[in-house]
From TrEMBL:
Keywords: Hydrolase
Gene3D superfamilies to which the protein is assigned, alphabetical: Nucleoside Triphosphate Pyrophosphohydrolase (3.90.79.10)
Domain of life, source organism: Bacteria
UniProt xrefs under CDD domains: NUDIX_Hydrolase
Lineage of the species this protein comes from: Bacteria, Bacillati, Actinomycetota, Actinomycetes, Micrococcales
Cofactor(s) essential for the protein: Mg(2+)
Hydrolase keyword on record: yes
Naturally occurring in which organism (per UniProt): Mobilicoccus caccae
Cited PROSITE patterns: NUDIX (PS51462), NUDIX_BOX (PS00893)
Residue ranges of every copy of the Nudix hydrolase domain listed in the record: 118-256
Pfam (any one): NUDIX
Protein name as annotated: Nudix hydrolase domain-containing protein
Length: 270
C-alpha cells in the first residue's frame, strides 16, 4: 500500500509530505514514476512531495496516514532505510548481489563520510583521468567490469586496504590519506551466510567503502595490471555499456555527475 502523510515538514522554503510503501521498494518506485516524482526526491524509504502536489498524490491512490503510522509500517515491513545526516540514499535493492546465495538487501549511499570501520569488510576506488574517463578492472570470475577493490585484510585500516587493492590490481600508487570518500554500500543479511563468497567475512550488516581519485594525464586505452587483470579507461556511453547494469552503478553515475569535489589526485606507477 502507498501511504502519504499531511504536508508538515518545512525545508528549503517549502512544506513537504512523505510518500512511502509498506509493501516493497518496487511498489514505491513504480508509484513515484507513475505520478512523476523527481528522482532526487527519493530518500531511501520514501519520496519527499511538496505540499502543492499532496492532492495529486491522493488522487493517484495514496492512502492518507500519519507520519507515525508510516514509520511504523515501513519499519514492520523491513523497509526502513537508515542514514546519517548529510548522506543521500541512492538505492535499496533486494537481493542486489547475485553472488550471495542468501536473502539480503543492498543499500547504496552517497556520503563524504566513511562507513563504520568495525563492519567495513572491503573497499573500492573509482579513478578518473583528466579526460573524464574511469578506470575499470575486468573481473574474470564474475565476467564483469568493476572498480579496483577487494576484501580488507584483518586489522588493516580501511584506507590502507583501498590503496593496496588499487596498487595490486592496477599498478597505481596513492597515499591512503589522499583518497576521497564518496559513497558506501551496505549489505544487510536476512539469514546466516554459511557458504559461498563472503562466508566468514560478512557480518549481519556489512559495509563496502567507496573512494574516488583522479590521475594526472590520460590513462592508456587498455593494459594489464600486476596481477594480470585487464584494465580499461572508459567514458560516456561506453562506460555505461560496460557496467550500467551493475548493482553499484548508481554510485558511479552520481560520482560522474558531481563537480569533482570528491576527487583527489593519485600518482600512476610508470
Amino acid at each position: 500500500m502507498i501511504l502519504v502523510d499531511p504536508p508538515a515538514w518545512e525545508a528549503r522554503g517549502r512544506v513537504w509530505s512523505h510518500v512511502a510503501s509498506d509493501t516493497s521498494y518496487a511498489e514505491l518506485h513504480e508509484f513515484a514514476a507513475r505520478v512523476g516524482l523527481h528522482p532526487l526526491s527519493y530518500d531511501g524509504d520514501h519520496y519527499d512531495v511538496p505540499s502543492e502536489r499532496y492532492e495529486e498524490v491522493l488522487a493517484a491512490g495514496a492512502v492518507p496516514s500519519s507520519a507515525r503510522e508510516i514509520l511504523s509500517r515501513v519499519h514492520a515491513a523491513g523497509l526502513r532505510f537508515r542514514k546519517r545526516r548529510g548522506e543521500r540514499p541512492l538505492a535499496a535493492i533486494p537481493d542486489g548481489l547475485p553472488y550471495l546465495p542468501v536473502s539480503h538487501r543492498l543499500d547504496l549511499i552517497a556520503s563524504d563520510r566513511e562507513p563504520p570501520e568495525e563492519t567495513t569488510v572491503a573497499a573500492v576506488t573509482f579513478v578518473a583521468d583528466e579526460r573524464g574517463r574511469t578506470l575499470l578492472i575486468r573481473s574474470t570470475h564474475r565476467d564483469s567490469w568493476e572498480g579496483p577493490g577487494g576484501w580488507r585484510e584483518p586489522g588493516e585500516p580501511v584506507r590502507d586496504g583501498a590503496a593496496r587493492e588499487l596498487r595490486e590490481e592496477s599498478g597505481m600508487q596513492v597515499a591512503p590519506g589522499d583518497l576521497a570518500a564518496c559513497a558506501y554500500e551496505r549489505i544487510i543479511l536476512h539469514e546466516e551466510l554459511t557458504s559461498g563468497p563472503g562466508a566468514g567475512r560478512l557480518h549481519p550488516v556489512s559495509h563496502i567503502a567507496v573512494f574516488a581519485a583522479t590521475v594526472a594525464g590520460s590513462g592508456p586505452a587498455s593494459a594489464h595490471g600486476p596481477e594480470g587483470h585487464e584494465l580499461g579507461w572508459f567514458g560516456g556511453d561506453e562506460l555505461e555499456s560496460r557496467c550500467g547494469g551493475s548493482p553499484w552503478w548508481p554510485i558511479l553515475a552520481r560520482l560522474r555527475r558531481a563537480d569533482g569535489s570528491h576527487a583527489s589526485r593519485a600518482r600512476p606507477v610508470r
